[in-house]
């Protein structure tokens, strides 16, 4: 198991969280290798009915090399969106052939570097990108294997900021225009266009929008074939959601696998999948310490040492993460705001939430923080990037260090400005 109570103390697998707090300090991200492997296994098992497939992990969710390596052992390659993620995927031991380059704003340099690294395929988002990729490939005497990303115009019923297939979304080519665009791109000499890609959004817990999107893709594939295109690959993207609130369901991955098998039964293609959150969200928690309990009307503020720069999801998407003490003090609960130290009212993890009683100095966790947690951290308020701790069974390792509290990257003064006498040497 991953995070559970034992003898009144919350553990990550076999390790009591206070032991981790002593070793790494707080705040800190804690990852459970077992939870990660369990999620990977359930995804792989759910897709067992699909014979021809390629599994890719969306590196943006969490790019720690230990996560990439663990997932690679289950057969996952990588879905990347930047040169930095290419480096992360390579550092995680993913072979270039098992990497797919997605993203709406690839630079020429990034595309060139990806071609030079021999990465497997590109998901093209618009015409100019295809033309430039073709030219870069021709200059190297190769053809870039590619898919065209299509916007199926389906509302994913998730937060607007993580919906990607609305009418005004920046991603892909709207499906009514997709066949014409495919024709133009397929004629480019440097591209080996093999099919289409789709991704409608993230944290999707109902299957209906995904199913609707895949149906449109199926229709498009048939239309492209009728025009004589050879379609061998379709990328179905990521997006499966998890349960952030106790008692709420996440996506049913087995039902997803069955739905995909059914919808794609006569497609005769290799299917690609790009899950991110589903694999890593539940494997991570943000360990934090209560700094103060400040009285407030009508509710007190529980001020913790983690903040929006460490875990941005609540501030950005009003996302819910369960807040739970590491050593619960008893059955009594109270209503409080849980907030961080950053100087913005948006630095809030829970508003008027009924939580277990906590006091100054107590440890607590913000749960389900393995996806888009550390990956989206910043150094706002000149705060440190927090350490990451890897737990596997009874063993833990600190797998990234806290950065120095201030000046996280060297900065220089411009010409003519002298170092102030007040700045310590
Ligand atoms: N493929 C593409 C092309 C994507 O854009 C994404 C996510 C994925 C795959 C993986 O999606 P997932 O399986 O993780 O849902 N920061 C936001 C989520 C942004 C998702 C961006 N794209 C959050 O914290 O909710």
3D architecture notes:
This protein is α/β, with parallel strands linked by helices. It folds into two domains: 3-30 and 281-408, Lyase, Ornithine Decarboxylase, Chain A, domain 1; 103-273, TIM Barrel. Helix content is 27%, strand content 25%. It has helices at 17-24, 33-46, 65-72, 83-91, 108-117, 127-139, 175-186, 208-226, 253-263, 277-280, 313-317; strands spanning 3-6, 9-12, 15-16, 28-32, 53-58, 76-80, 99-101, 121-124, 144-151, 173-174, 191-197, 233-235, 270-273, 284-294, 301-304, 323-325, 333-339, 348-356, 363-366, 388-392, 395-400. Strand 1 and strand 2 form a beta hairpin. Bound molecules: ligand LLP.
List keywords for this structure.
alpha/beta; 425 residues; 11 helices; TIM Barrel; 27% helix; binds ligand LLP
